## 1
Amino acid sequence: MKGIFRCYLCLLALPLLHGCAEPTPPPSQATAPEAVEVRTMRVEPGSWLHSFKSYGLVTPAEEYDISVEVSATVKTVLFREGQTIQAGDVLLTLDDKKLRFKLDGARASVEEARANYEQAGSTHKRNQSIYATGVISEQNFLQSESRLKSSKANLSRAMSAYDIATEELADAEVRSPVNGVATRRDIESGQNVTPADRLGVIRVMDALRVEVFVSQKDINHVHVGMIAMVTSPGVPGQVFSGRVDQVASAAEAATGNFEVGVVVDDAGGLLRDGMSAMVKFEGKPQQDILAIPRNALVDRGRQLIVYKVLDNVTQAVEPVLGVGNSEWIPVFAGLKSGDELVVSNLRLISDGQAIRRSNIDTKSDTSPAD
């Protein structure tokens, strides 16, 4: 009976002991993610100047083929391969014996034709004065007039032949019309030559050319006549003005690139054949173009995205991009004027990341120099 009573007391004490125990604390709340400090910028429309570069080699803009104007025998050759040539230098002489005979004959023909013309003129003048008196017939008068016209035509032909013979004799000395360097000599003394023969080649050095290849994404920005800037490591610190003189209509099958020729009109003797060169092209400025710096782009799963800021939280956006330069790239869709982008600490940023700003940049000129 005492045992039952002690058990009963224990049961009564349990609620009392429970009431005196420490209350169980509520589960702890999760800690909010820490905001990342970043720099941001506002996207604003501005002017866009599409520029791009290509590389090539300096070559002569023109080559002059040495040839003759008349068929003759070469008497002397006065140039050699590698020789610097000045305009007016005699390159070769031809045997002019036959040409001098031809000129002498042409001179004699002119003298004879002039004498005939003067005689016909004197006769016609006399007939003209006595025709009115009836001493000569109308037929004789008209015959003298015809002879005068015929002798005049003969004199004209003889003088033309004399001029041609004079020019041919002058052409017996072949002179260079250009400044340059003789790169080929295909003639020796004693050879018979004709106007169809190429006797040598002179590379013209007054104007130089740079041959470059432009990718298909840039080729529509290039046109004949546009200005381009040329630099070469062989002439450090110098920038030369060039102009596009040729744009290929089709790409090379092997590379998909288009050949473009740029002429440098005045290199001041500094650029030389065979030097490497860089050509910078600049297209026409476009207005109200949104562009973003390349350092705002990140590669996430082979997609180029930017992080836009909304209410201090990032949002991943994949914009539609155009062809940019080394620092900036135009945006065609996905962003609008006034959008705020993260431009620093992008390795710490993901979609939905809280941020705090260290500063906000605004860039209105979206076409900085490349």
Note: The domain at 53-57+206-285 is CATH 2.40.30.170 (Elongation Factor Tu (Ef-tu); domain 3).
## 2
Amino acid sequence: MNGVQQKYRPRTMRSLAIVKTGRESSSACSPILTIERLQMAQDTFHVPVLESEIVELFTSQPAGVIIDATLGGGGHASALLTGAPQLRILGIDRDPDARAASAERLAEFGGRVRIADATFGQLRDTMVRNADFIGDDSIVGVLMDLGVSSHQLDDASRGFSFRADAPLDMRMDPTRGETAAQFLSHVDQHQFVRLLRDNGEGRFAGSIAKSVLERQPQTTGELTEAVERAVPMAARRRGHVATRVFQALRIAVNSEVDELASGLDAALDVLAPGGLVAVISYHSGEDRVVKSVLHEASTGGCHCPPELGCVCGAIPRVAVFKASARLASPHEIDQNPRARSARLRVARKLP
């Protein structure tokens, strides 16, 4: 842990980290504190979005394995294992806090679930490493619930949110890779401008990039201040002025676009005929990637003029459910505001 992280890590999280690493006296590693840490992780992971829709989709599948490629706190997995006794789940997550919380939550299901440390871009390799769990069963579904969890946002030490001053980290796996501050130390200004524009920061992308790179922020507060200096008060839209900048940095630090594209391709490869892939996205950039990959798979890569019909012999790989994404109901949005921006796209693997 570096000095900046020690300075800004809230005391409660620092004491919990001591329990996790065992770097304090034996009295700090009491079972009570360990249980409290797991309970906190469970309580702060977000409520599963579109849960009833996901359960309805996958419980109709035949016996086999579902790959929950973004396991999080295990909310969707728990609902599926409860509602569909014919299914088993291979859960994937790169966040150690998420794996700890889901392991506790899913313990009651015993051998019907296995949790793996991986990203969804590593889906194929994860299947190979867990071949003993999959056995002769088919992969009858792949679920991806994208984006950042409420737990990651609420834990100030992770650096995902502008709501509290914290080290500028933003890694989904805080034990590997470079932090957001390290990314900013070497990123080219033109590249940073493109990244901001790709995430919806249009008019002031150039001035924001210049301000941020000049100041080289090390904390979320310093990043927010750099963004505020670049955007006039009169030009600020509804919502926090740094929202899209934080989003863009998080996506870059965690290679989320590349992970999503490769993960979707892998999912379509490993699915058995009749298997479902379901993806919940939360912003237009994610949804664009999902829509593009599923469209390419549904046409078999055909680019023949529509008025002529397909003459290239392309073979569709999937059938996409509906032309537009499914949204959360007004009731769910009222109960769980995070569901407001959720978009669910579903496709079925063809023979």
Note: The first strand starts at residue 64 and ends at 68.
## 3
Amino acid sequence: MTPLRAGFSLLLAATSAMAAVDPGLLNLVMPDAQVVSGVQVTQTLASPFGQYILSQMQPGDAAFQQFLAATGFDPRKDLQQVVAATGDTTSNPQDALVVGRGAFQLSQINTAATSLGAVVTQYRGVNIYTSPDSKSQTSVAFPDASTALIGNVAAVQAAIDRSLANAVFTGPLAALAQTVSAANQAWFATTSPLSDFAGGKLGGANLGSVNSANLLQSVLQATGGVAFTATGLTLACNAVTASPQNAQALIDVLKFVVSMIQSNANDPKVTSIASGATFTVNGSTAQISVPVSEQQVEQLFMPNAARARRMPLAK
């Protein structure tokens, strides 16, 4: 059995116990969140793709070893899950928060942060570490030894308030997040029209016979994710539109985009993946699924491993 196939076998054992997003993390996001996303880090790192990421981290690197010694935090085994959320970015472009579940050595982190010049303030009994870089103003806080908060000061303080108040994140977006996270290791969910996020960036470009602005306005909510399987991974996205006609129009445009990729891609690996896409209309919902095989994963992300598997064994 090759290392990659062994990795997929281990992954099957992990995904059989796959659970939805940690409610404790989800409850920390802002109540007016428009987009929520997350990564099941432990399960992702058990996959061949995760093993590839780990192989690129160069654990023998002096800077990495110094980081481990200073903070006591090893992201390869101490980080379990990450959830990110954004609120109304039209009125507040920095309305974003990242929360993480893991094992954090608070005393070591405090020493390391202060030695690097972080500004330390206390809010409701929790230390907030703010970058000395006046441009970023990124802050980090740890309400307890298993929870991390990252955002601007206001976002972190608000999350601390929610933590102490035992707030519960409810509503349609919370339900969507629970559903999509239960089926994927990496995922996103939004209950806001996609036109809210375009902000005119597409400039009203035409995709086939459909104006992009009108197309995005028809998408009322969307979910998507990456799920690892025994034979590779699957990329999937569901978009709820205003009507079955809009759902069909969206699928037609997606098919057009995929056909353009197939016609213009110079890389046969990309063409091969695009050709496997499937499109479905279910009432007002447009669905696209793209399976990526183990071999395609190898070719895209692990070319050395793919070549090694194809080489005959020495006699």
Note: The first strand starts at residue 35 and ends at 40.
## 4
Amino acid sequence: MLFAFAVANEWVDKMPYARHLELGKNIARRPHVPFTRKEITAIWNSKTNTDIVLILLYTGMRSKELRELRKEDVNKKDRTIYIRTSKTASGIRTVPIHPKIWPIVKRLLKAPGNYLLSEKPLSYSQVKTQFENVMKDVHQEHTSHDCRHTVATLLNEADGNPTAIRAILGHADGDVTSRVYTHVSLNLLHKTIKLLK
């Protein structure tokens, strides 16, 4: 597009040869697959440390958001998590804590350190290792990002409020009315997250 603009303004006399290259289509190496309800039940029954997997499955947070989550960002009164750093502006949000994982969060809040999962932020590889240990134990093949797909899919299947689902996941909305003028109450966020069984 820049070269087309340059040609139109006579800054260059011909289009570069690069425009004749075809790069092909971007093909996903491993498409994300949501967890089934049976797989989620198996995780609840696992004897390994499932805290990370269950928190991701019931919040829709990104792995990095969970790794960097400080205890001070957990509001015990409202039972919410405030995501203060995310890869997008829409990712800065308040996430309701599902009643099923509230006991896990409460236990982690009592442990030493400033971060929910540990005394200092866990690395990507540490979280990946813990996640993969659970997957091996329950004989499943999923990634941490599959958890976000699971939350989105299950809430959609349960007819969750679309604006609330986007708010929980930290997704932007292309619709100006929804993005600018629609505000989602904490009550609606809790009602929506409880649709996860």
Note: The chain has ten helices and three strands.
